[in-house]
Amino acid sequence: MKKYKTRIFLGLLFLIIIFNRESIFCALFSYKIDKKRASHKMRAENIIMIINKNNRYPTTFLSEIINTSQKCTSEKLNFTFAKCNTDPNLLINYGKTNCIGYATFATSICNYLLERQNMKRQWVATPYIAEIYFCDVNIHPFFNSSFFKDHDIVVIENLITHQKFAFDPSLNDYFGIYKIRLR
Known about the structure:
Layout: H1 2-19, H2 21-28, E1 29-36, H3 45-54, H4 62-76, E2 78-79, H5 88-94, E3 96-97, H6 99-116, E4 123-134, E5 137-138, E6 151-158, E7 164-167, H7 169-175
Parallel strand pairs: 2-3
Antiparallel strand pairs: 1-4, 4-5, 4-6, 6-7
């Protein structure tokens, strides 16, 4: 009977973690913005067709623009640790990229959709280099790999109110976490 209760407890704990992974992640992890990366305007027609297919209905909801950006990025890119191209207009040809490519690709999609929805004067998406903190401790010094030197994220900022929303497209691709917390 004790094994049965333990299994039920562990099963319920697992479900709680799975269904609340974003809240748990945001409670434990935060990102500190370091500096901007260059943004690229989306020009590749094959990517624009994919974006328009995933966002057929015009929306003024920022959450839908972010979701479409993350969905397209997850569908078209695969993560690699290798050095690779990060130009979002060329990534569709390669398919593999690192966190820099994920962030520039997702940023370009966000900015394309913001422009298409006539929201470009109010909102802008920017790729940033950031450091990840676990419980207020910077985790980067604990790793020797150049991969953990920094990490790239996307920040969408309201140009009038300076309200910010941030997401990590590579984290979203692997763990389904749609938003992150900034320090």
